[in-house]
# Entry
Amino acid sequence: MLRALLRPSIVKNFVKFPSTINRSKHNIMVTVQEALADQRLKHYVTPKAPVVPLEVEAAFKELNDKEKKYAHYISQASWAGMRIVLAQASHEAVAIFDFLQSFFRPLVPLDQAVEPKDIATKLNTDVEKVELLLQYAAMFYGNEGTS
# Structure
């Protein structure tokens, strides 16, 4: 199911790219290392993309009540509109978003940071596989879709 939903698909250290950027007219599988070495693909794969928490608490405390309310509701509207943006980006983006949300929701509490090794333990899998999925998810959310 994961392989069917994710495009580009990250499966066992491989990334599947659309034929328009491949070395041939057919979809082919290339390793992450090969993709990084190919200058044409450098914008599609970023190994170990840093994911850092957004520290806003101190700045939020400096806002007056009206500004805090505005910030709250604009963030809610942005999140609610995410699915619209995704649907406009690509037809599969909403399904990927729903999958990632439902996959991570029981694994990652909203109020605390979780290490990849903790997720791997819960899933009884390799940390490397979890890190690949987290990298894909970070790029997906950062790009607001698959494009």
